[in-house]
Amino acid sequence: MNGRLLTLVAAIFVVAGAASGAVAQQVPRMPRVGLLLQGSPETVVGRLAGGEFREGMRSLGWIEGSTVAIEDRFAKGDPARLAANAAELAADKVDVIVAIGVLPARAARQATSTIPIVTSGADPHDGLVASLAHPGGNITGLSVMWPDLVAKQLQLFMEAVPRVSKIGVVLQPNYSPHAQLMTELERAAAVLGVSVFPVDVGTARDLPPRFDEMTKAGADAYFVLSEPRTTEMRDDIAALALRHRLPGAAQDRRYVEAGVLLCYGVNFPAFHRRLAVYVDKILKGAKPADLPVEQPTTFELVLNLKTAKALGLTIPPSILNLADEVIE
Questions:
Q1: What's the whole-model pTM score?
Q2: Which of 101, 133, 131 is nearest to 118 (CA)?
Q3: Domains, the chain, with CATH or none
Q4: Average pLDDT over every residue of 16-20
Q5: pLDDT higher than 50, residue 86
């Protein structure tokens, strides 16, 4: 090969290399979102929360695998695994961590102070944000307003079942948000002239003896505080309550669909889809500290009249007229 030909070949390679480099520079890096969940992919709660968030992303034009990568991390109810999953996402330097619930949000905050965190548990009561208007730091998202809602939930339950006088409150042991909610329930109960007492239920195996204990203690109703592990037990809770002839209230419509009498609270599918709005803004350059925490503006009252009939209860018209949905 003569010198002129060598020069020509070299020039071709230079041009080709420059062209391929230009193309590479034109292809933007796909943003990565880490989805931190307390439950497992086998559970309804874990599966639905992730699916609902993905629906929200798609509605905003984010196509998984094409314009965004979403990486799930399930803790399967293990606090140590939750912390390890959060640390892994931080080490992988994802662009945003979406933490479904208070415990995942706490784990994410422990793992990173720089990667933006969007959570459904951004409540000043839990110490995750400085305030709703000015969250500060790297966390923002939505607030469920549990402490502000429990008094209204108890009031509606009392209106639906006026004969109630002693209520067992099903909660997760050693779970600080439930301890706070128990305090709020005690205050509301004192105003309404009823008594409440905690019933620790860590696993489904605890349910039968705890319902026996509730009945022996003179409880004539129960109230379930929401938490992913407890929500997975909702079918067992509803069945045991019916067996013990106890009407119950919950904070999540999924309990009522399982057979619990009444719930009042946010619509969780819409709530999880709403998280995508924050992720969209952050991926487009917004800072978490500049995005005020959003509080729900609409709540739903759902009644299960099939359960009421099985318990021999007549729900007052005042409550029926307020209901957003009645399951018959």
A1: 0.81
A2: 101
A3: 32-143+268-290 (3.40.50.2300), 146-265+299-327 (3.40.50.2300)
A4: 51
A5: yes
